[in-house]
Recover the amino acids of this structure.
């Protein structure tokens, strides 16, 4: 390859001999000739290093680097330092880049001049690619030259492999993955979102994220592991600290304190309803030591979060975090068990407002109304039309309407106004 490559793709390689050929084939089939593929053999115990070397022997675009095992974060960081391309991508060696993905990201970022571009994800299962209900809605519609201060949904876009970065942006800000920990993506990707001058969102699938057989069980076990909880909370705190430093500094827009304060608040809410939910939901399967550990570590984080953030959560989550604040292990276990049985909360009417049903777990204390009252944003009006016709010159509409969480029992609740 003569001259500077347009794109560098960093691929850490470890124990993936069954998946690596498909991964490398997917990159080399992107139709981009000036690409540099950095396959870094991280002391893999299987034949992965040999497979990568064989690809390098027959395709000048592939470079293989062998090293002693250092872990995913350290290997990605080394790859970013060795890369020479104008743009930088990170790809996990058991995953796949669908056709045209890098071309779409390159087109977006070169047209706009943005610091990074990101795109949609599919979960790659044994039955084929499947849409992710968590990720996919974030990427539609497409947005050009946006920023997390103007689009708070980007706080949920926290993995690296579905992105393209300007390499000078990455290196110029000293961005780096955390090393020797789980969940190494999230803090650095969120830092990139905040530090970017602007971000492009591409409304097409750019990444197939392989779900290996038996992964559900391993994920469940990981959520009960003390290291996973510690690393998740430390990663959360790392980004919260980064935001705090930026808010305290005298920065121009979009990094001025006024624009970053809503980001910090929205992130704290996301941590409580998403990051730590995955651990809290497993507490009914945990032993006493694991529950106590969650209470201690999550409780310490909660104590550092503005109580007004908790007040804006859905009622069920307000109660959960009240249990954490109270150190109520029994209540947390009962709450996790009931959520597994009944994913949707059961509610009752008190006056003109809907509240969580006090008869369902955790029922051991009388909660104040501010905790149990469903907020307006928790109630959704759902409607449907079953027939539309004319009768003697009149328009007749048959249909239905309902409010989420609400059984329409009283005649007064059945009245509809139409205009």
């Amino acid at each position: 390859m003569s001259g500077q490559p347009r794109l560098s793709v960093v691929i850490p390689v470890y124990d993936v001999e069954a998946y690596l050929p498909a991964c490398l084939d997917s990159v080399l089939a992107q139709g981009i000739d000036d690409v540099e593929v950095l396959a870094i053999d991280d002391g893999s115990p299987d034949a992965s290093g040999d497979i990568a070397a064989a690809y390098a022997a027959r395709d000048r675009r592939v470079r293989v680097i062998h090293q002693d095992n250092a872990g995913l974060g350290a290997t990605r960081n080394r790859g970013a330092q060795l890369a020479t391309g104008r743009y930088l991508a990170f790809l996990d060696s058991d995953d796949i880049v669908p056709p045209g993905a890098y071309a779409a990201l390159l087109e977006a970022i070169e047209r706009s001049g943005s610091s990074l571009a990101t795109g949609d994800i599919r979960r790659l299962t044994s039955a084929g690619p499947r849409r992710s209900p968590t990720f996919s809605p974030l990427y539609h519609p497409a947005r050009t030259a946006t920023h997390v201060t103007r689009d708070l949904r980007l706080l949920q876009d926290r993995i690296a492999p579905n992105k393209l970065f300007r390499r000078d942006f990455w290196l110029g800000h000293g961005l780096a993955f955390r090393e020797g920990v789980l969940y190494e993506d999230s803090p650095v990707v969120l830092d990139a979102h905040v530090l970017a001058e602007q971000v492009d969102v591409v409304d097409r699938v750019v990444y197939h994220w392989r779900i290996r057989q038996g992964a559900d069980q391993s994920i469940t076990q990981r959520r009960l592991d003390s290291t996973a909880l510690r690393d998740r909370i430390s990663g959360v705190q790392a980004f919260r600290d980064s935001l705090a430093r930026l808010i305290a500094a005298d920065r121009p827009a979009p990094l001025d304190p006024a624009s970053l304060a809503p980001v910090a608040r929205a992130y704290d809410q996301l941590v409580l309803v998403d990051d730590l939910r995955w651990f809290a939901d497993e507490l009914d399967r945990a032993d006493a030591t694991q529950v106590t550990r969650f209470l201690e570590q999550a409780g310490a984080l909660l104590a550092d979060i503005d109580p007004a953030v908790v007040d804006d959560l859905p009622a069920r989550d307000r109660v959960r975090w009240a249990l954490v604040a109270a150190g109520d292990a029994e209540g947390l276990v009962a709450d996790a068990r009931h959520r597994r049985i009944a994913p949707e909360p059961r509610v009752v009417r008190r006056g003109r407002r809907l509240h969580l049903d006090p008869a369902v777990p955790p029922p051991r204390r009388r909660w104040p109304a501010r905790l149990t009252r469903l907020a307006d944003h928790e109630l959704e009006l759902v409607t449907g039309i079953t027939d539309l016709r004319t009768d003697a010159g009149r328009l007749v509409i048959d249909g239905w309407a309902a409010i989420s969480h609400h059984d329409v029992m009283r005649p007064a609740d059945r009245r509809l106004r139409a205009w």
